[in-house]
TrEMBL record:
One GO molecular-function entry: zinc ion binding
Cofactor(s) of this protein: Mg(2+)
InterPro entries named among the record's database cross-references: Rege-1_UBA-like, RNase_Zc3h12_NYN, ZC3H12/N4BP1_RNase_Reg
Coiled-coil portions: none
Gene3D superfamilies in the record: 3.40.50.11980
Keyword field: Endonuclease, Hydrolase, Magnesium, Metal-binding, Nuclease, Zinc, Zinc-finger
Gene Ontology cellular component list: cytoplasmic ribonucleoprotein granule; nucleus
Organism whose genome encodes this protein: Pteropus vampyrus
Residue segments, region Disordered: 45-82
Lineage: Eukaryota, Metazoa, Chordata, Craniata, Vertebrata
Domain Rege-1 UBA-like residue range list: 3-44
Gene name of the encoded protein: ZC3H12D
Protein known as: Probable ribonuclease ZC3H12D
Family recorded in the similarity comment: Belongs to the ZC3H12 family.
The keyword Lipid biosynthesis is assigned to this record: no
Residue ranges constituting the RNase NYN domain according to the UniProt record: 89-237
Length: 241
C-alpha cells in the first residue's frame, strides 16, 4: 500500500494524521499495515470519533472516565462503574455460554461454571466483571437445551454482573443476537480481558484492531471438576496485577 493509501486507511480508522506520520517515520514508508497498526496501539495512540458501524475506542487500563457523546451512543448502558479507579486490574468480560457449556462437558449449560469463573476473578480483586449470555437462557429449560442451577443466573443478574443479550421468537423460531460481538466490543472498549475458549476468528477477520486485541487479551481456561483454572502465562501478558 502506497503512502497515501496508508494515510487514508488509518484516518478512516480514526487515527489522526500526526500519529500516523510519526509511526511511518519510525518504521519506514515500506512498513506493513499490520505493523503500523500494532505500533499505533502499543504507543498509546487512540482512534478518534468513529461512525456507528466502526470499532469502539480503547479505554486506558483502570480508567473510569466518562465517555464523550460520540462514545456514549455505543453501548453506554453496558458501561457502569468499574470500581476503584486506582486499581491496576483489568476489567473482565466472560463469554457465559462458552464457560457454562465447558463446565457442563458440552452437554449441559452449567451455570455453576459461570459462578466459579466469577468467583475466581473476584478472589483476585477484580471489580469490573461482566458475563454475557443470551436472554433465552433464563427461560424454563427444555429437553434439547438442559440447564443446571439456573437460579445462579438470577443471582448474578441481581448483582449487575450478568448481561443478557436480546432474543425473540418469530413464527415460533428463536432469533438471537450475535452475543460474541457484544463480548468483544465491551472488552475492547474497556481495554479488558475476554474469558473464553473461542478464538472469535470471524470477528478477527472483520477488523484489524479487534484481531490484535483478541490475540493479546483472550484468556482461555479449563475446569478440573469444580475448580476453574486459567491458562498459564496469559495473565502477565494481558497486563493485570
Amino acid at each position: 500500500m502506497e503512502h497515501s493509501g496508508k494515510m487514508e486507511f488509518f484516518q478512516k480508522l480514526g487515527y489522526n494524521r500526526e500519529d500516523v506520520v510519526r509511526v511511518l517515520g519510525k518504521l519506514g514508508e515500506g512498513a506493513l499495515v499490520n505493523d503500523v497498526l500494532q505500533e499505533l496501539i502499543q504507543t498509546g495512540s487512540r482512534p478518534g470519533a468513529h461512525q456507528d458501524n466502526a470499532a469502539p475506542l480503547l479505554v486506558p487500563r483502570g480508567s473510569c472516565g466518562t465517555p464523550d457523546s460520540a462514545q456514549r451512543g455505543r453501548g453506554a448502558d453496558l458501561e457502569d462503574d468499574c470500581g476503584d479507579p486506582a486499581s491496576s486490574l483489568r476489567p473482565i468480560v466472560i463469554d457465559g455460554s462458552n464457560v457454562a457449556m465447558s463446565h457442563g462437558n458440552k452437554e449441559v449449560f452449567s451455570c455453576r461454571g459461570i459462578q466459579l469463573a466469577v468467583d475466581w476473578f473476584r478472589d483476585r480483586g477484580h471489580t469490573y466483571i461482566k458475563v454475557f449470555v443470551p436472554s433465552w437462557r433464563k427461560e424454563p429449560p427444555k429437553a434439547d437445551t438442559p440447564i443446571r442451577e439456573q437460579h445462579l443466573l438470577e443471582e448474578l443478574e441481581r448483582q449487575a454482573v450478568l448481561v443478557c443479550t436480546p432474543s425473540r421468537k418469530v413464527n415460533g423460531k428463536r432469533v438471537v443476537c450475535y452475543d460474541d460481538r457484544y463480548i468483544v466490543k465491551v472488552a475492547y472498549e474497556r481495554d479488558g480481558v475476554i474469558v473464553s475458549n473461542d478464538n472469535y476468528r470471524d470477528l478477527q477477520s472483520e477488523n484489524p484492531e479487534w484481531k490484535w486485541f483478541i490475540e493479546q487479551r483472550l484468556l482461555m481456561f479449563s475446569f478440573v471438576n469444580d475448580r476453574y483454572v486459567a491458562a498459564e502465562g496469559v495473565p502477565a501478558r494481558a497486563g493485570w496485577g
